[in-house]
Automatic annotation (TrEMBL):
GO biological process: carbohydrate metabolic process
Species per Swiss-Prot/TrEMBL record: Allochromatium humboldtianum
Positions in coiled-coil regions: none
PANTHER family per UniProt: SPERMATOGENESIS-ASSOCIATED PROTEIN 20
InterPro entries in the cross-refs: 6-hairpin_glycosidase_sf (IPR008928), Ssp411 (IPR024705), Ssp411-like_TRX (IPR004879), Thioredoxin-like_sf (IPR036249)
Pfam families xrefs: Thioredox_DsbH
Domain of life: Bacteria
Protein's UniProt name: Thioredoxin domain-containing protein
Residue ranges of domain Spermatogenesis-associated protein 20-like TRX in the record: 13-176
């Protein structure tokens, strides 16, 4: 009898069964009467006068899985949730608009940083949060009440303390409004670039790389800002300061050698739980790996060091092997867990490694990756580069080429063995903004590493966006199993324009330029605040929420306003569109005060400011023979973040704006512009 009841419960589904989000589908068999965020659920809460229990997470989130298992799968807990609340489950990756609003509200209410799972209780009439937290355990511990205690207490407070809650809600909405930038008449000062560098230098971990203490996140945008500073200093002549390149290069090297990187399969995990980049939170996110792929290419261009090239190759190969759909789009994430345990897919027993490797391979592999030391993860070994290959080779009396060949062979053997394990879950929804970040990374890798297959991968992803996520002149945010929906956000438009400009530097496409212009026009029409400057995260046609934000700082992704300002400047200079330049100018003025308070938190905006104060050089090459490709490659050699090179075949005549005047001739021509000033064309690179 009990087994038949269990089987029947396993087949029971709630409203999440038809969702496109794999995270929501993970909760489709919960006994909780979950709703997605939708008008029907909000109307029901008003009708019943029940608070809304809003739970926000994502499919690769370890503690989301824990809370689901402890509470949402428990019939007694679910009965209480269903009786007292209208329960709404949200995928923060599909609805970053809701996540941003309620994470900020959580910080204001609790005076603590947020995270996932995010647990928020909302008043039913206006959806304002009156209590918020993150993970709550099944039993009281670590100063936290049990989740069932919380449910009872919150519902009682809603019934008995209505006036106090209304007053708190009013204050919260005022506080949210007060967080928004008010704008100013002045541009940010160029000295903020210096101030950001000094802030980063003060928090730099000289022993292990990175900034501050654990948990340590990659922060690719900060490292890119440091590389750009080094390039700017080198171009100015004199004796350049070596610190920016050292801070960026050393941090990236330690991440690559450490446990943050999958040493066998490639790709970066989300963050390290320790100072040494040793033990990661094992999930792999597309939005980390796109910028880190581009950063590895930049570091290789700046230094010539093979470790950065090899990391770029491993990351790009992993993306194509495991994260690209047959239709072309890139999937979102790989889970931290497999077989119910975090990191189980990645860790090793020492005897199993020794049994698989040869007598020559094992001592070297153990010396590099720490199998000759005590276990570093729950009694097992997660591969972490304690020694460099050169150090281990010297200690074992091997020459470096021999050692590197042995290590490559050992990694290949262990990779093949690991492929037989149960793989982590993969979230196969395709998000526009995250795909744009990876398209940019793959395009950079195609150009720097001269890999046409990487270009083909990026073009397939772009074609997917054009065919599935561009509808009636507007972008959609997400697609799963052929179903695309949800209005796109600022990040989608800004990052896709930026990615298209990167692709145009690999190979010219008039269709891609036209698409970038279409996206820029929607960006101005839907998101731009022409009166005060800057861009809202949600468009004018988006559903109204309790707060409409203009996010300025960078977090796990580059800030949308910074990317928009940077991309619009570049596109505006390329085609001579003044409106794009004015929108970028207004964004910088809006952000000036926020940038002055915390310069290093606004790396994307600082890069836009850097380009505004000293516009990058733009080379347009027109040729009909093989000199087009040769000159393009020569002009792009080295790390040149302040130079953009577009090689346009002479036969293409219908070009927009100022490009129309840069015609091809009987012989190859090179046009050189800086900002709004262009010089007469020259007939060879030497003439530049």
């Amino acid at each position: 009898m009990s087994s038949s009841i269990h089987a029947r419960d396993a087949q029971r589904t709630n409203r999440l069964a038809s969702a496109t989000s794999p995270y929501l589908q993970q909760h489709a068999h919960n006994p909780v009467d979950w709703w997605p965020w939708c008008p029907e659920a909000l109307a029901l809460a008003r009708e019943l006068d029940r608070p809304i229990l809003l739970s926000i997470g994502y499919s690769a989130c370890h503690w989301c899985h824990v809370m689901a298992h402890e509470s949402f799968e428990d019939p007694a807990t679910a009965e209480r949730m269903n009786r007292l609340f209208v329960n709404i489950k949200v995928d923060r990756e599909e609805r970053p608009d809701l996540d941003k609003v309620y994470q900020t509200a959580h910080q204001l209410l609790s005076q603590r940083a947020g995270g996932w799972p995010l647990t928020v209780f909302l008043t039913p009439d206006d959806h304002t949060p009156f209590f918020a937290g993150t993970y709550f355990p099944r039993e009281p511990r670590h100063g936290l009440p049990s989740f069932t205690q919380l449910l009872v207490g919150v519902e009682r407070a809603y019934r008995e303390q209505g006036a106090a809650i209304r007053e708190q809600n009013r204050s919260l909405l005022e506080a949210l409004a007060g967080l928004e930038p008010q704008g100013g008449a002045e541009l940010p000062e160029g000295s903020l670039l210096e101030a950001a560098f000094h802030q980063l230098a003060l928090s730099f971990d000289a022993e292990h790389g990175g900034f501050g203490r654990a948990p340590k996140f990659p922060h690719a945008t900060d490292l890119e800002l440091l590389l750009r500073r080094q390039a700017r200093l080198a171009a100015s002549g004199g004796d350049p300061d070596p610190r920016p390149l050292h801070m960026a290069g050393f941090t990236l090297e330690r991440m690559i050698r450490g446990g943050l990187t999958d040493q066998l399969g490639g790709g970066f995990c989300r963050y390290s739980v320790d100072d040494e980049w040793m033990i990661p939170h094992f999930e792999k996110m597309l939005y980390d790996n796109g910028p880190l792929l581009a950063l590895c290419c930049d570091a290789f261009s700046a230094t010539g060091e093979s470790i950065f090239r090899d990391a770029a190759l491993a990351t790009a190969d992993w993306v194509m092997r495991e994260m690209q759909s047959p239709e072309g789009g890139y999937y979102s994430t790989l889970d931290a867990d497999s077989e119910g345990h975090e990191g189980a897919f990645y860790v090793w027993d020492r005897d199993a490694v020794r049994a698989r490797l040869s007598a020559v391979e094992y001592p070297l592999f153990a010396a590099v990756y720490g199998l000759d030391r005590p276990p570093n993860f729950e009694g097992r070994w997660h591969l972490h580069g304690y020694r460099t290959p050169a150090q281990a080779a010297e200690s074992l009396g091997l020459d470096l080429p021999q050692a590197e060949a042995l290590l490559a062979s050992a990694r290949a053997t262990l990779f093949s063995a690991r492929e037989q394990r149960v793989h982590p879950g993969r979230d196969e929804k395709i998000l526009t903004a995250w795909n744009a970040l990876m398209i940019k990374g793959m395009a950079r890798a195609a150009r720097v590493l001269e890999r046409p297959d990487y270009l083909e991968s990026a073009e397939q992803a772009l074609a997917f966006i054009r065919s599935m996520l561009w509808r009636d002149g507007r972008l959609l945010a997400t697609c799963k199993d052929g179903v695309a929906h949800l209005n796109a956000y600022l990040d989608d438009y800004a990052n896709l324009i930026d990615a298209l400009l990167e692709l145009l530097q690999v190979r010219w496409s008039s269709a891609d330029l036209a698409f970038a212009v279409e996206l820029a026009e929607v960006l101005l029409d839907e998101f731009h605040d022409a009166e005060r400057g800057g861009f809202w995260f949600t468009g004018r046609s988006h559903e109204p929420l309790i707060h409409r934000a203009k996010p300025l700082g960078d977090d796990s992704m580059p800030g949308g306003n910074g990317v928009a300002a940077l991309a619009l400047q570049r596109l505006g200079h390329l085609i001579g569109e003044v409106r794009y330049l004015e929108a970028a100018d207004g964004t910088l003025r809006l952000a000036a005060e926020s940038m002055r308070r915390m310069p290093h938190a606004h790396a994307s905006l600082l890069m836009a400011l850097d380009d505004w104060l000293d516009p990058p050089e733009m080379l347009v090459i027109r040729a009909a023979d093989d000199r087009l490709e040769t000159w393009q490659r020569l002009a792009q050699q080295g790390y040149r973040p302040h130079r953009f090179v577009f090689a346009i075949p002479s036969g293409i005549d219908e070009l927009p704006g100022t490009l129309a005047a840069m015609r091809g001739g009987d012989r190859p021509l090179i046009y050189r512009c800086r900002g709004t000033h262009c010089e007469p064309p020259v007939t060879s690179l030497a003439d530049l």
